[in-house]
Amino acid sequence: QVQLVESGGGLAQPGGSLRLSCEASGFTFKNYAMSWARQIPGKGLEWIGGIYSNGAETYYADSVKGRFTISRDNAKNTLYLQMNSLKLEDTALYHCARGGSSTSMSSWGQGTQVTVSS
Question: What is the pLDDT of residue 41?
Answer without folding.
Answer: 81
